[in-house]
């Protein structure tokens, strides 16, 4: 048996080498590569990006061929993976984590004919676009639900890293929370990871033990939702609909919806209309959505949340419109003013109602 | 049929060289079966793993880039392991080395001087040594187990790095994202081959391999290290200081891990990030044993380990193999490489029923 197998093996290696040398076929589909920071099965951030990849395949069929590399570390490895994708013929490459920013730019310089799309970064080049979603809009709506549904007036918030994206979410949530319930406060626990079910679950338990009866998360695993379900408190899902992990617990979930954007960018490359640009879309652009509301939420609260959601879409409500006070109670944004995008992008202070300090 | 393991009585010389070959053959066979069962063309998968990543000059250069920190750390760890000093915290020493070296790069940001790189190298070595000195002191003074202390200190080191890049060392123009500035050119290791990422660090790794070999086999202190590892009592009798060897091996392995950290931030990364190593400090432990604690073996093991990572990526890109499968395959390679080692000291005897030697069982 061993001998036969060896023969097959040798034959195969020769055949494979010959295949490699065969000339490329004409009329090749557009190859699109994805670099993921987590596993596609994380049920959160990476899972939603992979849904976007599948949406491209579904919408464009034979015209495209997609591939991905998952769980790529944000260090020296990222550049190698991105370059490998570019070198193996992918003409459009999505790098879906902030930490891939500099590696993406380095590779982009070497492959001027390949288009790159980097999620959540701020550096662009002729062939590098950036895109992100205004998740804080969804968190604002979640803040209304939390403010109305909490009995203990303590909200637990599980943060990944104290970066502007996460701080912005905490603030937006807290502003809405305190608008409907001025007595409510937010306690934040940092887990220093985007995906660590163990730590996220522990953080949820600790927050519930401190009196929190609604759990918010800005991490990607469904562990906090499962803990909330077990302990009989509410929670808001992150990235994907996590209701199957907490059918009674999930008030709603803030869904990342990349499908539309991804299909549009792939089409742009096919049409030859792709240009480097910066996209920061919100509820109105359909880059995020809210999962169905929990049935336990009273109709008037649902109506209130829906009104806010529709007002944000219509542009009549901005989560960061004044008056906004910082933690010391000082009014930092007067009524009638709104924090501009430039400042939101670098936000590093808490609004009134958030407890504790941002780790420095 | 009955399989029996029989002690050979002495190490089989041919088997020392034959077992790696056997392991590779077994891996290929088992891999073929696994890929076929999962519905992936096995030949294409094996080709993606072992040939595709190194079929270009660029691919080879990437292999060296990936193997460099593994070899560097592995050589240091192996010297300690030979003396039964178990430094499990190379990841932490790497991190502190990177912080020290990165600190120099940031202090001298946009300063153009040929002294910055040498200074960073010294800082990296010292940083790693400092972090390894803590478990060394605790072991010598309080007999605290260095496996635990060095491992725990890894998490401390990673949190210190996290604090620095989220706080004081954050790029002032970086919109508060947790990254340092990108180092100026004077703080970046020169690239050896234009168009690749192959940097001077690879040469350091090679030097470490040679120096490690000379140290262990040609110096008196290296001899002491080996004797203490093989027979602590004999070493005691000979008057070798166990404390001195604990200090030496921990500081040495710490220094090399620190240098690896310096190389990573000054080479392929070029800035400080919240994570700078995908676990090189831990993988190097496997590399050290895979290389049988011999510097040359470690070099080969580091290259093989690096190849499995690169191959895993190519398999994902070219064939859409899921990451979990590539992980299983990596595990398979390591399993066979370590498992066949049993043949060095044992032989397999097969007893067929009815085929017993005369005179037995009558």
Average pLDDT taken over every residue of chain B: 90
Proportion in β-strands of chain B = under 5%
Low-confidence stretches of chain B: none
Instruction: Give the CATH superfamily of the largest domain in chain A.
Output: Response regulator
Q: How many DSSP helices of chain B?
A: 14
Largest interface (CB within 8 Å) is between: A-B, 48 and 52 residues
From the alpha-carbon coordinates, what is the Rg of chain A to the nearest angstrom?
23 Å
Return the string of H and E elements of chain A.
HEHEHEHEEHEHEHEHEEHEEHEEHE
Structural class of chain B: mainly alpha
Q: What is the percent of helical residues of chain A? A: 40-55%
**Sheet having the most strands of chain B:** 2 strands, antiparallel
The fold-level CATH name of the largest domain in chain A is Rossmann fold
Structurally, how many domains make up the residues of chain A?
2
Number of strands of chain B: 2
Q: What do these coordinates show?
A:
The complex is a heterodimer of chains A (360) and B (362). Chain A has helices spanning 2-21, 45-60, 76-87, 101-110, 135-149, 164-180, 197-209, 223-231, 259-271, 299-314, 341-345, and strands spanning 30-35, 64-69, 92-95, 115-119, 128-133, 154-159, 185-190, 214-217, 234-239, 250-256, 278-281, 288-290, 324-325, 331-333, 354-355. The longest helix of chain A has 20 residues, at 2-21. In chain A, 41% of the residues lie in helices and 19% in strands. Chain A has 11 helices and 15 strands. In chain A, helix 6 links the parallel strand 6 (154-159) and strand 7. Chain A has 360 residues and is α/β, with parallel strands linked by helices. In chain A, the strands form 3 sheets. Chain A has a 7-stranded mixed beta sheet, sandwiched between helices. A two-stranded antiparallel ribbon of chain B has the order 1-2. In chain B, helix 4 packs antiparallel against helix 5 and helix 5 runs antiparallel to helix 10 (242-269). Chain B has helices at 13-37, 42-50, 57-82, 90-107, 116-142, 146-166, 201-218, 220-230, 232-237, 242-269, 280-290, 295-319, 323-339, 342-345, and strands spanning 2-7, 346-351. Chain B is globular, with a radius of gyration of 23 Å. Chain B has a domain at 64-281. Classes of the chains: A alpha/beta (360), B mainly alpha (362). Chains A and B meet through helix 1, strand 2 and helix 3 of A and helix 1, helix 2, helix 3, helix 6 and helix 10 of B.
């Amino acid at each position: 048996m061993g001998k036969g197998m060896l023969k097959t093996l040798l034959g195969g290696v020769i055949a494979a080498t010959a295949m490699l040398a065969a000339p490329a076929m004409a009329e090749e589909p557009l190859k699109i590569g994805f670099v993921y920071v987590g596993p596609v099965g994380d049920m959160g951030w990476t899972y939603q990006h992979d849904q976007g990849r599948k949406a491209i395949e579904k919408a464009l069929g034979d015209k495209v061929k997609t591939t991905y590399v998952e769980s790529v570390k944000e260090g020296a490895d990222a550049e190698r993976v991105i370059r490998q994708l570019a070198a193996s013929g992918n003409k459009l490459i999505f790098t879906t984590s902030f930490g891939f920013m500099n590696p993406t730019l380095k590779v982009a310089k070497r492959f001027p004919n390949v288009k790159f799309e980097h999620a959540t970064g701020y550096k662009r080049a002729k062939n590098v676009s950036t895109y992100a979603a205004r998740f804080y809009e969804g968190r604002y709506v979640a803040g209304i639900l939390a403010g109305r549904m909490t009995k203990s007036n303590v909200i637990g918030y599980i943060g990944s890293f104290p970066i502007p994206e996460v701080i912005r979410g905490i603030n937006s949530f807290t502003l809405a929370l305190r608008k409907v319930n001025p007595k409510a406060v937010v306690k934040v626990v940092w887990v220093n990871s985007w995906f660590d079910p163990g730590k996220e679950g522990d953080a949820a338990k600790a927050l519930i033990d401190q009196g929190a009866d609604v759990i918010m998360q800005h991490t990607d695993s469904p562990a906090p939702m499962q803990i909330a379900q077990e302990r009989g408190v509410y929670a808001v899902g992150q990235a994907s609909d996590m209701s199957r992990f907490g059918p009674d617990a999930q008030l709603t979930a803030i869904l990342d919806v990349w499908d539309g954007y991804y299909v549009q960018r792939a089409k742009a490359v096919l049409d030859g209309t792709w240009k480097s640009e910066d996209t920061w879309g919100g509820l109105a652009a359909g880059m995020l959505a809210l999962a169905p509301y929990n049935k336990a939420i009273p109709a008037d609260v649902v109506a209130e949340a829906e009104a806010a959601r529709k007002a944000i879409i219509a542009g009549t409500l901005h989560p960061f419109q004044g008056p906004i006070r910082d933690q010391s109670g000082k009014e930092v944004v007067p009524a009638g003013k709104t924090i501009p995008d430039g400042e939101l992008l670098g936000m590093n202070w808490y609004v009134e109602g958030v407890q504790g300090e941002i780790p420095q | 049929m009955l399989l029996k393991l029989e002690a050979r009585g002495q190490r089989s010389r041919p088997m020392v060289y034959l077992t790696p070959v056997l392991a590779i053959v077994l891996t290929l066979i088992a891999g073929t079966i696994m890929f076929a069962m999962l519905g992936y063309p096995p030949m294409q998968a094996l080709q993606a793993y072992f040939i595709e990543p190194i079929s270009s000059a660029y691919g080879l250069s990437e292999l060296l880039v990936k193997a460099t920190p593994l070899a560097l750390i592995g050589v240091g760890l192996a010297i300690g392991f030979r003396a039964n000093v178990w430094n499990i915290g190379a990841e932490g020493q790497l991190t502190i080395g990177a912080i020290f070296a990165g600190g120099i790069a940031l202090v001298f940001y946009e300063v153009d001087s040929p002294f910055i790189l040498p200074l960073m190298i010294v800082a990296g070595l010292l940083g790693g040594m400092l972090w390894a000195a803590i478990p060394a002191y605790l072991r010598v003074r309080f007999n605290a187990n260095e496996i635990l202390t060095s491992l725990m200190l890894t998490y401390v080191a990673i949190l210190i790095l996290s604090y620095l890049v989220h706080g004081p060392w954050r790029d002032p123009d970086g919109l508060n994202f947790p990254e340092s500035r990108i180092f100026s050119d004077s703080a970046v290791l020169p690239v050896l081959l234009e168009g690749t990422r192959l940097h001077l660090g690879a040469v350091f790794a090679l030097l470490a391999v040679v120096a490690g070999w000379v140290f262990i086999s040609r110096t008196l202190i290296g001899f002491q290290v080996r004797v203490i590892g093989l027979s602590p009592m004999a070493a005691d009798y000979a008057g070798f200081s166990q404390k001195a060897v604990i200090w030496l091996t921990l500081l040495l392995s710490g220094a090399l891990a620190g240098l690896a950290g310096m190389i990573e931030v000054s080479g392929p990364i070029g800035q400080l990030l919240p994570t700078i190593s995908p676990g090189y400090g831990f993988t190097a432990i496997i590399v050290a044993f895979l290389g049988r604690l011999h510097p040359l073996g470690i070099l080969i093991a580091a290259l093989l380990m690096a190849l499995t990572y690169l191959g895993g990526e190519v398999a994902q890109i070219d064939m859409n193999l899921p990451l979990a499968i590539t992980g299983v395959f990596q595990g398979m390679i390591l399993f066979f490489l370590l498992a066949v080692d049993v043949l060095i000291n044992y032989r397999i005897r097969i007893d067929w029923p009815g085929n017993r030697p005369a005179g037995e069982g009558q």
